[in-house]
Amino acid sequence: MTLEALNGLDKGALRAVLSGCCGSQAWVRGMEDVFPVRDVPGLLAAASRIWRACAPKDWLEAFDHHPRIGDREALRKKYAGTGASAEQAGALDASVKVLEALAEGNRAYEEKFGYIFIVCATGKSASEMLGLLRTRLGNDPAKELVIAMSEQEKITELRLKKLLS
Questions:
Q1: pLDDT of residue 95
Q2: Which residues contact 161 (CB under 8 A, 6 or more apart)?
């Protein structure tokens, strides 16, 4: 899609496209107000500014729109066509041992923080993501929420760029 085509979408279609980039409805509503945008850097700057102005509840809403890292079944079924499968390509070829460790780590992470482990998985192997998960389990909840928010921001930026490529 071109930027011109994105700018030309009606409100409902724009909302649907933006929701595919980030699951926070507060972010989507904020983004609707910046259209039409002049250029891609302006779009990305607005996306970041609006995301960082969202409340933690909005961040958590966005996290709920992701499959667990390494959850092959969820990637195949629920998230087919969302881009999550391609983003987690490094986990799709992981060994059973690594996938089991990811599942165990995901459970521990959710138990500690109350939401799924969010990482910008693009370009990372399953082992790399497992290492990040294990490291981030040592964070306090406030620090981890900011890290997860930043990872979601990266994911959203990648999805916007992919949308316009």
A1: 82
A2: 40, 44
User: Which residue, of 41, 61, 81, is where some domain finishes?
Assistant: 61
- Measured CA to CA, the distance from residue 125 to residue 93 in angstroms comes to 9
Listed residues 35, 61, 87: the one ending a domain: 61
Catalytic residue among 28, 66, 84, 113: 66
Q: Chunked in runs of 10, what are the mean pLDDT values of the chain (165 residues)?
A: 97 97 98 97 98 98 92 54 50 77 95 97 93 98 98 98 95
Our count of domains for the chain comes to 2
37 with 68: CB under 8 angstroms? no
- Residues 42, 86 share a domain: no
Q: Could you give the CA distance from residue 8 to residue 154 in angstroms, rounded to a whole number? A: 25
Is-contact 87 70, C-beta < 8 A? no
What are the tens digits of pLDDT across the range 120-136?
Answer: 999 999 999 999 999 99
Active site includes 65? no
Give me the CATH number covering residue 113.
1.10.3330.10
